[in-house]
Design goal:
With 261 residues, the chain is α/β, with parallel strands linked by helices. It has seven helices and seven strands; from the N terminus they run βαββαβαβαβααβα. Bound molecules: D-galactaro-1,5-lactone. D-galactaro-1,5-lactone binds next to loops.
Length: 261
């Protein structure tokens, strides 16, 4: 089984590489920078996710794609549209041209970040309400996934990932944390679930303070085993005024002037 991981040199990609390495699986690691310290079962390809021809070649012989590539925080519109939006188009189109049957798309909670928290679990498939241009790019990626499923039959699973870091670093992450191990388990579920069609699921651990649904992820066979609460004593309880929204600080005003992106 050959799994292509885009953005493999990034934060989540680096956390997932060892967790997705299984006997009989080749990880084809794509990034714009070469990947050092390749392990058994890994191969590295240096290319841009906005180079459709290169991406189509890289997709040859691949069984599934985990698309992590792109900017992972807010940037100016020209940067987001050039990298994340064009990159998502190239990814789905390359998958179609190369006949890759399944794409797991790393969407984000910021696709729906401006929904206010209302004391109930935010449902899977919540209506888009992006909190940034970055969030808009995730909505666009989900929309492309939907189109490529309906028009071409690709299986597309969009994971609205919370905060995937080694451990939570602020009060919000006590709710939004997706542990690296749970992230690996969630991706495995998305890769293995039979006939998924088009899905949108939250990516979050079994946090005591969680405010996102786990229904769709569980329906794919995911069971989170970690809980951010074990780190509660290590993070400041200082509330942030933007924590009233699902997207937290991404909802704050952003300075797009030169040098701020
Ligand atoms: C994301 O989508 C970002 O890529 C990441 O940098 C975190 O900020 C995360 O969301 C979050 O909401 O904590």
């Amino acid at each position: 089984m050959k799994l292509l991981i885009t953005g493999a040199a990034g934060g989540v990609g680096t956390l997932l590489r060892p967790r997705l390495a299984t006997p009989g699986r080749t990880l084809r690691l794509l990034d714009i920078v070469p990947i050092a310290d390749l392990r058994d079962g890994e191969e590295s390809v240096t290319a841009s996710i906005t180079d459709l021809d290169a991406l189509t070649e890289v997709c040859a012989g691949v069984d599934a794609i985990l698309h992590l590539g792109g900017l992972s925080t807010e940037h100016r519109w020209d940067q987001i549209s050039e990298v994340n939006i064009e990159g998502a188009y190239c990814l789905f189109e390359a998958a179609r041209r190369a006949g890759v049957p399944r794409v797991v798309f790393a969407s984000s909670n910021h696709a729906v970040g401006f929904h206010p928290k209302d004391g109930t679990e935010a449902p899977d498939y919540g209506y888009p309400r992006p909190d940034t241009f970055y969030g808009v790019s995730k909505v666009l990626g989900e929309a492309l996934g939907s189109l490529y499923h309906d028009r071409y039959g690709l299986d597309v699973i969009c994971l609205r990932i919370g905060s995937c870091f080694p451990k939570p670093v602020n009060a919000r992450m006590l709710a939004s944390w997706l542990s690296p191990d749970d992230c690996g388990r969630l991706v495995e579920a998305a890769l293995a679930t039979p006939d998924p069609g088009f899905r949108i699921a939250w990516g979050v651990s079994a946090n005591t303070r969680r405010w996102w649904s786990l229904d769709e992820a569980r329906a794919m066979g995911f069971e989170p085993l970690d809980n951010a609460e074990v780190f509660a004593d290590e993070v400041s309880d200082e509330p942030d005024e933007f924590d009233r929204f699902l997207g937290g600080a991404f909802c704050a005003p952003y300075d797009y002037s030169e040098g701020q992106s």
